[in-house]
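Newbie here. four chains, one complex. Structure please?
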Amino acid sequence: MAVTIDIDVRYRDLDALGHVNNAVIATYLEEARTNYIDEVFGAGLEEYTFVIAHLEVDFERRITTGDDVAVTVQVPALGNASVPMEYEITADGQRAATAETTLVFLDAAGEGTAPIPDPVRDRIEAHEGH
Amino acid sequence: MAVTIDIDVRYRDLDALGHVNNAVIATYLEEARTNYIDEVFGAGLEEYTFVIAHLEVDFERRITTGDDVAVTVQVPALGNASVPMEYEITADGQRAATAETTLVFLDAAGEGTAPIPDPVRDRIEAHEGH
Amino acid sequence: MAVTIDIDVRYRDLDALGHVNNAVIATYLEEARTNYIDEVFGAGLEEYTFVIAHLEVDFERRITTGDDVAVTVQVPALGNASVPMEYEITADGQRAATAETTLVFLDAAGEGTAPIPDPVRDRIEAHEGH
Amino acid sequence: MAVTIDIDVRYRDLDALGHVNNAVIATYLEEARTNYIDEVFGAGLEEYTFVIAHLEVDFERRITTGDDVAVTVQVPALGNASVPMEYEITADGQRAATAETTLVFLDAAGEGTAPIPDPVRDRIEAHEGH
């Protein structure tokens, strides 16, 4: 079940060509991701450490101020230590970009990977209906 | 022939966990890319329009302030309309991330793709020794 | 008559201490300012050149993600070439910062200052009820 | 004794008009400030809490990529709880902005102000030759 957020495009998001900069698109994804994490991963999250291991974006349309921007995110099948996420960004209802990230849980030392904690796995799978 | 630039990590590049934010890594890539474009693509670039069509990053190590950061970029075999670029980011001499981007030339209307202009293709291939 | 906008605090707005960075506060002001300019300065604005000549912020409370942030801006008495703006930023209804900026109109060459164009002056004064 | 740092202007620092955005200037000041703090305030700084209470910038010239940018910072006479800092930003050797910030030390609870810790005061005054 996808979670969607709206993004307010800021003037500072534009680059010298007047379009939302490619790095800022990664920030838009981050807003959708942190919102998903807050809503779905659940309480107790401060006990876990995870990092972004992979980011991939296909840019289809340029975005600018005044565009009505939304980001949708969902989690397909979970790995052992990793949570894949798939995104779609729309501007005025038209697809502007698609993206994927991989979030990886780390062990207590923050060095090696660790299995997705069971409560987190359960909540994601319940949310996504896997 | 790879082109390498040094990056000064700014305090503003850090996120709430004290590491360089993933979106800022895309900005570091952009610095290497714009530097490569300035050095290699050559004069007359203002006549052409190109956009980033694809961005892909694998994050291997977290970066923080005080790290000695460098970004290396090179162009493998050229496509018809697209210029692929491969990057390596190091922090204190250790690989922190690898990345790829695809830059696509657009036609005069900025709508469809266009072949890489011949002078640009020639300069890239001379530089890379393809 | 003050114009108020809401700000979505982004995770990227935080610095390593978990608070909205001071430079990002300047971006929040910019959002209020560009919104005021769009709403009040009126059509034909692309004919004019103006720049920010002065920025001044008093930070009173730290802001973080989850805070309900709003920025209010109004224009006190106009100068000859300059438009002063006064701002208040609130977080969860409590004042977090106050600020002032001075916007200066430039001549066609973009070198010297120029009087505020009459249509812009008229619209601001009508809006503010000066 | 002023401390000077060089700034690499990034493409991402530019706004839609092709100049370094006003909020990014605040980030340039922050780079000079954190560098001064690291060099002068001395070890043990992690024991103290301080915040930026005031920021003031006068913009004189626009800065763009390719400009050779430097920021100089010095501390005039110290207050009881507050450390004033004065900055000058140059671009290609010409003054582009001047600025002031006030940094305030907080008590252990992070609520009220606290006197500048003696070791910090001593190091600043030794450095500045007050």
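Moderator note: DSSP finds two helices and five strands in chain B. The CA atoms of residues 41 and 120 of chain B lie 5 Å apart. Thread marked as resolved.
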